[in-house]
Write a structure and sequence with these properties.
Chain lengths: 146, 146
DNA sequence: CGCTGATAAGTTGTGCACAATTGAATTGCC
DNA sequence: GGCAATTCAATTGTGCACAACTTATCAGCG
């Protein structure tokens, strides 16, 4: 039965994305749990490990998240003593997010995490590369269409 | 500046997935808003448009969601009068989710939605096909690794 | 200087995700 | 039949996402 003209769920790229994304964070979850982080918290730490300190707005641009998401998330990272938020002296609107020593130290414990996904993915390095590239093109196009 | 050995954010497939998935639902959002649906609600309706009624557990298997997510979501769909939940007579544990006439009628209004993503994606039909296939393989492998 | 508009971060409210628990109904097995 | 183990849906609690709004600060311009 069913309705032949109804959009078919299994045909949709959007569902495939949604599903694969949740599956990937599910694989990360137990690894990150050992670090005491959620996946979005891990993303913020990745950005800070690259370069710090960063403003809240800067973090938001890098990750595509707004202050409504980041403000409480950063408070939780601060409660974990991984991060410190300091109001900027030159511009009192800005908040600079600094790593603590503990936050910096966590970097080495996290260094093995990405390899786990690669191992669990069941795709070749080349396929993963191509996937990442296609997803990048897709994200850019979708953002452009808004 | 920068720790050369820190995992690089832009290299990660996982972030690309996370980002592309949110971008895709962001493209869907204004379209679905006209139908009065969120993206997960739309997914549930897609499953029901294919075949109804369905049990909560069945919906969960199809979408990879548990009752903690589905129960309140289905209540909202019921409040929108798109769906009815009926306790099964043979097995009183089960709840069968039925479409209402309004729920069935919404199908035709939704039929143009998937084409929008394809148009906004900036990828060829072939690239989309390949992407969906790779994502499917990835999801399966990731689920298998849990 | 003082005002207007822009910008930064935070807050509020809604709706997923998901772990963990609960409670009711059913199945299996003796 | 009687009882343990299982199954199903719902509930509770935490943490994202995101829209809408608030508050504080700053920049530009007359």
């Amino acid at each position: 039965m069913g309705m032949p003209d109804a959009p078919r769920l299994d045909r949709q790229v959007c569902f495939a994305l949604y599903s694969a994304s949740r599956a990937a964070t599910a694989v990360y979850r137990p690894l990150l749990e050992e670090l005491g982080l959620t996946y979005p918290q891990y993303l913020v730490m990745l950005v800070l490990w690259e370069n710090e300190p960063r403003g809240v707005r800067e973090l938001g641009e890098e990750l595509g998240l707004d202050s409504g998401t980041l403000s409480p998330l950063l408070k939780r990272l601060e409660a974990l003593a991984l991060v410190e938020r300091r109001r900027s002296a030159e511009d009192e609107r800005r908040v600079a997010v600094h790593l603590t020593d503990a936050g910096r130290a966590l970097s080495s414990k996290a260094s093995g995490v990405p390899q786990h996904l690669a191992a669990a993915a069941g795709l070749s390095a080349h396929e993963l590369d191509q996937l990442r590239e296609t997803l990048g093109k897709l994200s850019a196009a979708l953002h452009g269409s808004l």
